[in-house]
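It is worth pausing here to work through a concrete case rather than discussing structure prediction in the abstract. The textbook approach is simple: state the sequence, then state the predicted structure, then interpret. We follow exactly that order.
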Amino acid sequence: MYNIYMKSLALDKNRPCNINKAGAILDKFFYQSAYPLVLGAIAVCSYIFKLQLVGFGIYLFFASILLVKQRDATPILPLLIFLMSLFSDVSVTRSPVFYIMLIIPAICLIYHFIKFPPVPFCFGNLFLPLLAVSTAMFSGGLLSTFLSDYPNGLLYSLPLGPGLLIIYLYFNNYLRPPKNFDMKKYICYVMVVLGLICALEFCYHFYMVKSATDKNIYFSELGWINSNGLATLMLLCLPCCCYLLSKSKNITLWYALVLLLYVIIILSRSDGALGVAVLFTPFLIFISYKPLNKANKRYFINLTFVAIIGFCLAGLYLEFTGKLAELLQKYTNSKTVDSGRTQLFKNALNVFIENPIFGGGMGYYNDVSYESHTILRNFSFHSTVFTVLGCMGVVGVLAYVYYFYARFSIITEKNTTFNKLIFIGFAMFEAYGLVDTCEFSAIPQMITLTLIILITDMTNLKGERLPLLPNE
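Step two, the predicted structure:
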């Protein structure tokens, strides 16, 4: 299996070599396909065995080496994308030890900027849209009657606004991989590994919830937020796995991984994500099928028929054993009717009517009653459209229209298989965002999407190869 990864990705050509032998070994390791797998294994072990700070320390160790050693930030991509999957309980990020551990990497980052200054500095095509979104977030609620809640929204706005902008600017200036490095395959490979990480962690979590006497474990503070957050990541992983399938001579492995991602979406019991995934499946099939050679096209069709028959047989088995109705009942009852979304959407419209210019602000609280008569204190309106309207008003609408247009323009600039599949991923992400918090989950969902679009933008300019210098 490992050889299939290596052969498909072809990530080991033309590595930069150091005079120092140890440095040369590290150079090779950080650009090999084994590197994301190692990080993934560390993440899964940290999650399952509750060694979250140990795993975090290892990640920081790798990041520190990379920051001191080289300008190129490509090997830092998987560290950032996998970061939150280290944590089965993000409450550890509020401990003093967590912040003490950041001191050495922070020093290394300062050294990195001094040794490798971003000259000339590149702002990139998403700089102004992200700046507009940040401005809309911070101006939200300025003229509203909810101004007293404004400080509550800062912790919500900082990672989504300036935080995302800073990460974008860093990678826009420091993603400088070696010549002939296939960045499209690399980011897709990283996303597939992320899908495997989340799949293993979710299966473990699913087992723990099923066997636990305290069902509150289901709502613990997970790194990927909750099952809906996991399903959102799966929607981004699906098209990336399809891209590797379309570029591989041996499609069996990638096809199996695609099916695994669908199974995880089903097990997440996220009806919105499942509906979106099913809706866009024909597009994923068609785009993945088209670049294949003649033999693989026939094999792909056969695999698809087998997969469809397999799902049908599984459904029939569940029906005959009487488990299908029970499963569907659990699926539909996993959220009480509409999970309070209808009330949230009504609240958003009311807030927008009262505060049409700046909205109620990112710190606006929602009190939503559930069938269990409990109250949820919620910052979000659980929808991109309604959150923008309710929290940021007309200013937010204008900012997000600009933001969406910029991302759409980047993705559709080239008519390639990669761009088409990334467009499908973006469309699924935003379609699900109509009924969930996709656009307003900074870590890891929005960071991941932003990095994917950044790489799409850069590969639009130079094909498979990114420029070594900003003005090249």
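Step three, interpretation. The chain has 19 helices and two strands. The two ends are 38 Å apart (CA to CA).
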